[in-house]
Amino acid sequence: MAATDKALAGLRQMIASGELGPGAKFPPEPELCDHLGVSRSSLREAVRSLGALGVIESRHGSGTYVSALDPAAIIGRFSLSVELIPLEGVLELLEVRRVLEAHATAAAAARQDPELAARLGTVLDQLESTTDATEIQHLDAEFHGLICAAGGNPTVTALTDVIRGRGGHYRIFEPGADFDAIKRTSDRGHRAILAAITTRDPAAAATAASAHIAQTELWLRALRPDPQPALP
């Protein structure tokens, strides 16, 4: 095992076992090197790797600490890797998103929040009235983001945001022969989701969300668009 890998494995074990819990301060560097049997350079590289994942944070003048290990915050860091996944991988991720958003949409319907239905209705009014590709993508993201947040599980919200962020690079709402048909079908799907939330029907909400995302998968498989830069 390479020295950096050894250091990384040792730190992971200390955190996973609870020896260093959320918010705990790391021992002094010489002590930690002796404990893990690694050099300072290997330890520092391992710390940088875990820092990039949101597991460790360095506080200037204070030391190195385990982060709060918040699942949503850590999952949000996945975007650094997910952004590299090509279309075939994105299609696999959409299957995961379909399951997660069906659950979140059902939970949002069960919570019976009339303010949510009103906010979603406003977003859909704007979405249905525009043909601008950039605006469509922003409003679509807002619609689904509101629902996931209302589902009450920040980890689900973070994971769906990561998946949706990469999927947004493969744009289906671009001017072309299929634009009108895609837009109409998408608008109907959104309205079905909103209707289920408004009538407080979790089963119908889950079905509508799953069907809507499955339709997006079908369009991506059929159109196979090239990836584009992220929208501002």
From TrEMBL:
SUPFAM superfamilies xrefs: GntR ligand-binding domain-like (SSF48008), Winged helix' DNA-binding domain (SSF46785)
Keywords from the UniProt entry: DNA-binding, Transcription, Transcription regulation
Source superkingdom: Bacteria
Keyword DNA-binding: yes
Pfam families, alphabetized: FCD (PF07729), GntR (PF00392)
Classification via PROSITE patterns: HTH_GNTR
UniProt feature coiled coil, ranges: none
Residues of the HTH gntR-type domain: 1-69
Protein name from the UniProt record: FadR family transcriptional regulator
